[in-house]
Amino acid sequence: MADGYLESRQQEYEKRKQVWLKKKRKDIHRNVQRPDDESL
């Protein structure tokens, strides 16, 4: 029983982690600001 509980918790954790990483990657790309002068 304990193994099943731990496995389900691990799977839930992995799902939440993937959602978090996907959101984090989006936020990184959204926050990048390009300088006005492209030569910089």
Please give a structural write-up.
- It contains one helix and no strands.
- It has 40 residues and is mostly helical.
- The protein is rod-shaped, with a radius of gyration of 19 Å.
- The mean pLDDT is 81.
- The chain has one helix at residues 2-31.
- 75% of the residues lie in helices and 0% in strands.
Q: Helices and strands in order, then pairings?
A:
Elements: H1 2-31
Task: Name a few traits of the molecule.
40 residues; mainly alpha; rod-shaped
SSE succession? H
Structural class: mainly alpha
Give the % helix: over 70%
Number of separate helices: 1
Radius of gyration: 19 Å
Mean pLDDT: 81
Uncertain spans, ≥5 residues at pLDDT below 50? none
The fraction of residues assigned to DSSP E strands is under 5%
Q: What's the overall geometry?
A: rod-shaped
Strand runs, count = 0
Straight-line N-to-C gap:
60 Å
Largest sheet: none
